[in-house]
């Protein structure tokens, strides 16, 4: 893909890949700017469910406009491929930052505050991220925090409209359950997601708490050998609050317990 031109975007580097496709750095030759392009792999374009998720991501992101959320510019089809053209966010993933160890309390609180602001803006628009984790948080060189990849997001239903039917769950689908595949990352899933139930904004608040715990301790809160064991830990494990650093303010401890 490097060096190819799709529509008016010239691919310059690969940034990563995941369940929703490959992500590339590209130059928008019309506007003279750099962007991030998510390309749904050709082998998956025939998968109606995957394609629908891709198109949903574009619509969800297009409805959000906040400094702590990576924005979307447009969606295009070029040479039979679906392209999601997004804001290119420079900087370090929170996951990479955590690989270096625990983050000081003041810095952790600052990062968490910006994540919370972005999530609040999304929740006000009826959007639940449902896959918040360190790899989906970018720390820019100027200190700004950006939430990435609302690929699993879905406008949440009112509580009275939620269905307990697992085949309609935002976390699991009938097809993917049969394959033993769980969308999102198990270690950051809320208990209701682990049970295959509907996710509402509280699922993101849970995930934020798990991320903050990891920033403060430098240790992943739920880290078992298998996905099944990790989900079981989410549902049943006792949290080791003594692992929090001694300088953690009482107010922050109370917030994490909530």
Explain how this protein is built.
The structure is a single chain. The chain has 258 residues and is α+β, with helices and mostly antiparallel strands. It has eight helices and eleven strands. The strands form three sheets. Strands 1-2-3-4-6-5 form a six-stranded antiparallel beta sheet. A three-stranded antiparallel beta sheet has the order 7-9-10. Helix 3 packs antiparallel against helix 6. It is globular, with a radius of gyration of 19 Å. About 12% of the residues have low confidence.
CA distance, first residue to last residue: 46 Å
Largest sheet: 6 strands, antiparallel
What is the CA-atom radius of gyration, in angstroms? 19 Å
Following the backbone from N to C, one meets helices and strands in this order, namely EEEEHEEEHHEEEEHHHHH
Instruction: Compute the number of strand runs.
Output: 11
Helix content: 25-40%
Oligomeric state, counting identical vs distinct chains: single chain
- Low-confidence stretches are 155-184
Which outline best applies?
globular
Beta-strand percentage?
15-25%
Helix and strand content put the structural class at alpha+beta
Please give the count of helices.
8
Biggest sheet: strand arrangement: 1-2-3-4-6-5
Provide a brief overview of the structure.
With 258 residues, the chain is an alpha+beta fold.
């Amino acid at each position: 893909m490097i060096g190819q031109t799709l529509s008016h975007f010239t691919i310059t580097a690969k940034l990563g890949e995941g369940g929703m496709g490959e992500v590339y750095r590209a130059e928008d030759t019309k506007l003279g700017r750099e962007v991030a392009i998510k390309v749904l792999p050709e082998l998956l374009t025939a998968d109606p469910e995957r394609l629908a998720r891709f198109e949903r991501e574009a619509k969800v992101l297009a409805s959000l406009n906040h400094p702590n959320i990576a924005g979307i510019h447009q969606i295009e089809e070029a040479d039979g491929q679906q392209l999601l053209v997004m804001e290119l966010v420079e900087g370090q993933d929170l996951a990479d930052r955590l690989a270096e160890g625990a983050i000081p309390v003041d810095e952790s609180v600052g990062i968490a505050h910006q994540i919370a602001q972005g999530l609040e803006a999304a929740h006000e628009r009826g959007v639940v991220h449902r896959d918040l984790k360190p790899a989906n948080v970018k720390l820019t060189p100027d200190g700004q925090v950006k939430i990435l990849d609302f690929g699993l997001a879905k406008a949440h239903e009112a509580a009275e409209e939620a269905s307990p039917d697992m085949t309609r769950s935002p976390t699991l689908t009938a097809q993917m359950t049969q394959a033993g595949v769980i969308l999102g990352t198990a270690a950051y899933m809320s208990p209701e997601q682990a049970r295959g139930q509907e996710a509402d904004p509280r699922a993101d608040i849970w995930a934020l708490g798990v991320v903050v715990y990891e920033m403060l301790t430098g240790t992943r809160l739920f880290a078992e050998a298998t996905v099944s064991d990790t989900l079981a830990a989410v549902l049943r494990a006792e949290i080791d609050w003594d692992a929090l650093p001694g300088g953690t303010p009482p107010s922050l401890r109370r917030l994490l317990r909530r």
